[in-house]
């Protein structure tokens, strides 16, 4: 269930475990109620109403907190989350020695009959007031121009007015882990604000990317529903950051690309590929469905018949085929790929940045709302597919028999 997940997460992530000392537990248990009443009365005055998306984003932000916001804040988040999602407290009071359970129950109960919408708004407001305590993961500090500290698997460099985001997990064919989805999202946010003119995506090693890391779903704790809800939100934010990216975005596809690494290419402004690259979206054989807005962009780019061959039947295509179908801008011989593509990019990056940005806006902004709607729907459908027997079996096959594409 999604219910207590957030608090559990905070407990897991909190320094020395949230409510770490007995003393702190008592402090919460004894003082929680009045504190929560105070939060409620001070923050419920706001007239704004947060959308579902704002709320989901705030929930996601909380998961990214790198610093323990403190027990009071955690209780407040817990209570507002429960109120926003379930309404007034409807569970029996925990037994007397369940200090943590009691503190949480008190915090939730103290919100009384606060409407769900107000709780949602208060939650969003409170999370944004916590933002300063988000660490470097906001990706906006100088470090963002080099490498995101959270993982070595996504490296961000900057040169000649070009920000380069490199998938750097060559031993695993640059399969994208949960952390990498988050790092890429943050790297794109940072790149959208830095002083580069163009942003480039590429992979280290002989693969561009083998797509979603299939162990993402086996390495997480919590209930399946909770995990898939979290995954859908992570995916949605990840794809949103491509949809909303304001500067020219270029992919240098240095080798085979699979799954989500292929689908988001429809959101790029140029795709340069090595002639060793292939493009494969084996969704049906994995029991899943298209994402990355490909259910909308691919038919537009290559026509419905070719899109169906890739997205429904899982046909793998070569770089030259992808170029003929409009998914790839240009193909280069592998030996000269880096040299030629970089010469091209370095020249393009010298264009006046504002003109390029505004040009992109003109080309892209009219379809944006549709893309966001498509993304939301694809993520909703995927969330159901991940629970299906077809999908569970396909992932098991990959890891047990090492079944490959
Ligand atoms: C709470 C959870 C958060 C989740 C976050 C959001 C989730 C969003 C999901 C979005 C959905 C996306 C859909 C897709 O992307 S579908 C595509 C999935 N990818 C695959 O099916 C590819 C699987 N890999 C293969 O078939 C082969 O590995 C290969 C790519 C054809 C390469 O074969 P090759 O023989 O050359 O190399 P190896 O198989 O020996 O690979 C080397 C090691 O890398 C590991 N590997 C490769 N790809 C993946 C992968 N996608 N996931 C996990 N691991 C991968 C492989 O197991 C080898 O590891 P080993 O050396 O330890 O054996």
Automatic annotation (TrEMBL):
Domain ACB: from-to ranges: 51-136
Catalytic activity field: (3E)-nonenoyl-CoA = (2E)-nonenoyl-CoA; (3E)-octenoyl-CoA = (2E)-octenoyl-CoA; (3Z)-octenoyl-CoA = (2E)-octenoyl-CoA; a (3Z)-enoyl-CoA = a 4-saturated (2E)-enoyl-CoA
Subcellular location: Mitochondrion; Peroxisome matrix
Keyword Oxidoreductase included in the entry's annotation: no
Pathway(s) where this gene product acts: Lipid metabolism; fatty acid beta-oxidation
UniProt keyword annotation of NADP present: no
One Pfam family of this chain: ACBP
EC top class named in words: isomerase
Region (Disordered): 132-152
Keyword annotations from UniProtKB, A to Z: Acetylation, Isomerase, Mitochondrion, Peroxisome, Phosphoprotein, Transit peptide
Cited InterPro entries: Acyl-CoA-binding_prot_CS, Acyl-CoA-binding_protein, Acyl-CoA-binding_sf, ClpP/crotonase-like_dom_sf, ECH/Chromodomain_protein, Enoyl-CoA_hydra/iso, Enoyl-CoA_hydra_C, FERM/acyl-CoA-bd_prot_sf
GO terms for MF: delta(3)-delta(2)-enoyl-CoA isomerase activity; fatty-acyl-CoA binding
GO cellular component, one term: peroxisomal matrix
Predominant cellular place of this UniProt entry's protein: mitochondrion
Enzyme Commission number: 5.3.3.8
PANTHER family: ENOYL-COA DELTA ISOMERASE 2 (PTHR43684:SF1), PTHR43684
Family under the similarity heading: In the C-terminal section; belongs to the enoyl-CoA hydratase/isomerase family.
Known function: Able to isomerize both 3-cis and 3-trans double bonds into the 2-trans form in a range of enoyl-CoA species. Has a preference for 3-trans substrates.
Protein name: Enoyl-CoA delta isomerase 2
């Amino acid at each position: 269930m999604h219910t207590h997940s957030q608090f559990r997460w905070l407990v897991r992530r909190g320094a020395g475990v949230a409510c770490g000392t007995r003393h702190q537990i008592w402090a919460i248990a004894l003082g929680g109620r009045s504190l929560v009443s105070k939060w409620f009365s001070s923050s419920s005055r706001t007239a704004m109403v947060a959308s579902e998306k704002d709320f989901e984003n705030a929930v996601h932000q909380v998961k990214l907190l790198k610093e323990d916001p403190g027990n009071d804040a955690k209780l407040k988040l817990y209570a507002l989350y429960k109120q926003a999602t379930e309404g007034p407290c409807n569970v029996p009071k925990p037994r007397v020695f369940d200090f943590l359970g009691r503190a949480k129950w008190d915090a939730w109960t103290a919100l009384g009959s606060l409407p769900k919408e107000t709780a949602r708004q208060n939650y969003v407001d409170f999370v944004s007031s916590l933002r300063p305590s988000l660490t470097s993961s906001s990706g906006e500090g100088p470090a963002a121009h080099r490498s995101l500290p959270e993982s070595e698997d996504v490296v961000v460099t900057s040169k000649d007015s070009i920000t380069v985001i490199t998938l750097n997990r060559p031993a695993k064919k640059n399969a994208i882990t949960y952390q990498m989805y988050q790092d890429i999202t943050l790297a794109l946010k940072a790149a959208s604000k830095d002083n580069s003119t163009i942003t480039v995506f590429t992979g280290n090693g002989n693969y561009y990317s083998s797509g979603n890391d299939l162990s993402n779903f086996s390495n997480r704790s919590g209930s399946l529903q909770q995990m898939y809800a979290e995954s859908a939100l992570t995916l949605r934010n990840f794809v949103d950051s491509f949809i909303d990216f304001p500067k020219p975005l270029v992919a240098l596809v240095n080798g085979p690309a699979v799954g989500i690494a292929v689908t988001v290419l429809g959101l790029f402004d140029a795709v340069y590929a090595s002639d060793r690259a292939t493009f494969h979206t084996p969704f049906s054989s994995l029991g899943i469905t298209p994402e990355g807005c490909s259910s909308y962009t691919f038919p537009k780019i290559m026509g419905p018949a070719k899109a169906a061959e890739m997205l429904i039947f899982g046909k793998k295509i070569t770089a030259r085929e992808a170029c003929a179908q409009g998914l790839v801008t240009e193909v280069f011989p592998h030996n000269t790929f880096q040299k030629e593509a970089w010469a091209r990019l370095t020249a393009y990056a010298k264009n006046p940045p504002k003109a390029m940005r505004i040009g992109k806006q003109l080309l892209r902004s009219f379809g944006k709302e549709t893309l966001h709607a498509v993304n939301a729907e694809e993520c909703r459908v995927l969330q159901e597919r991940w629970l299906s027997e077809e999908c569970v079996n396909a992932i098991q096959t990959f890891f047990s028999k090492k079944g490959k594409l």
